[in-house]
Design a protein that fits this description.
Elements: H1 8-15, E1 19-23, H2 29-43, E2 46-53, H3 59-64, H4 70-89, E3 95-101, H5 104-115, E4 119-123, H6 138-143, E5 150-153, E6 168-172, H7 179-193, E7 196-203, H8 213-230, E8 238-244, H9 247-257, E9 262-268, H10 273-276, H11 280-287, E10 292-297, H12 303-316
Parallel strand pairs: 1-2, 1-4, 2-3, 4-5, 6-7, 6-9, 7-8, 9-10
Antiparallel strand pairs: 5-10
């Protein structure tokens, strides 16, 4: 059973998770633990660690471990998971762990459903000795299929202390979809941490060569400014930027330039997973200088859409 995000109020709740699921291949624990501690403390959330043990017959296991012994592997996993759990508990964080055989993406989705966790934290640095998390496989499946925010520590993410508790958040605004709810989510995250937000919109590269490009830039700036004035609640400090060029390059450039701690990014879950490798989200995850907090598009249902669906059901009946 998947989580379904149905309103801005639910998005606000997702900004401050009370239950965090941490998917680990165990080789990535040093990169993940500081982020997990920071977020769990900030939100007062419970942490569940999850590790999927590959089936012994899987080719990747044969390459990674000579003559695999399931019992020995499971014992090693339990010892390592217990060590991570104890490290979290020493910081005052309530924690439990799950390790079982199965395809990693399936195990993680099942644990999200079982625990009701409302954030997933994972790294995408590659495959460890005991694990099978890898950018382009497990991350690809999860980012396009789960409806909770996914916090990704990518291969280029710096491990500076400043990234653990964000003071600067960068949010990409497309200006062609359900942006208001995504912007509200970014604002809620920023308000919780007392961080400032930069709303970024990237225009096509050829805009600069078009007639009267200043007009297009001005329109985009006004559109971004409208998100700030639209909200009735107190917003965090918000800046807006409009750039023209390759979207991924501009996100990475601006994030580096502004010393961004977190990037908040929408992921279009309507794309088949086979197309995700070519998406903006994948490329940002692979090259971002800081962690990325993603939220899947296409899962936010407005009350009007729900009412329309109910009316259609009644007509059909």
């Amino acid at each position: 059973m998947e989580h379904s995000v149905e309103s801005t109020a639910e998005l606000s709740a997702l900004a401050v998770p009370k239950h965090i699921l941490v998917a680990t291949d165990l080789a990535d624990s040093e990169d993940l633990i500081p982020h997990v501690i920071s977020q769990a403390k900030a939100c007062g959330g419970h942490v569940t660690l999850v590790h999927a043990i590959p089936f012994a017959s899987a080719p990747i296991v044969a390459k990674a471990i000579a003559e695999p012994d399931n019992a020995e592997m499971e014992r090693d996993v339990r010892l390592m998971m217990t060590g991570i759990m104890r490290a979290l508990e020493s910081q005052g964080i309530t924690c439990d762990f799950v390790s079982r055989q199965g395809h990693a993406a399936d195990v993680i989705r099942e644990e999200l459903a079982r625990t009701g966790a409302n954030r997933l934290i994972m790294a995408t640095h590659g495959r460890g000795k005991l694990g099978q998390l890898a950018l382009g496989s497990v991350a690809k499946e999860l980012l396009t299929s789960v409806d909770v925010p996914v916090f990704i520590v990518g291969p280029q993410s710096h491990t500076d202390t400043v990234h653990f508790t964000p003071t600067r958040i960068l949010h990409l605004v497309s200006l062609n979809g359900d942006d208001q709810k995504r912007v509200s989510f970014a604002f809620d995250v920023a308000k919780h941490y007392g961080a400032e937000v930069t709303l970024l919109h990237v225009l096509d590269p050829d805009v600069k060569d078009a007639m009267n490009p200043e007009r297009t830039f001005k329109w985009a700036q006004n559109a971004l400014a409208a998100f700030v004035t639209h909200t009735s609640e107190m917003t965090p400090r918000v800046r807006t930027r409009v750039e023209a060029g390759n979207t991924v390059n501009e996100i990475v450039r601006v994030a580096s330039q502004e010393k961004t701690d977190w990037i908040v990014l929408g992921v279009d879950g309507r794309f088949p997973s086979t197309r995700f490798l070519d998406s903006t989200a994948y490329k940002v995850l692979a090259s971002a200088p800081c962690p990325v907090l993603t939220l899947r598009h296409g899962q936010v249902k407005s009350e009007e859409k729900v009412r329309m669906s109910e009316r259609i059901s009644l007509i059909i009946a």
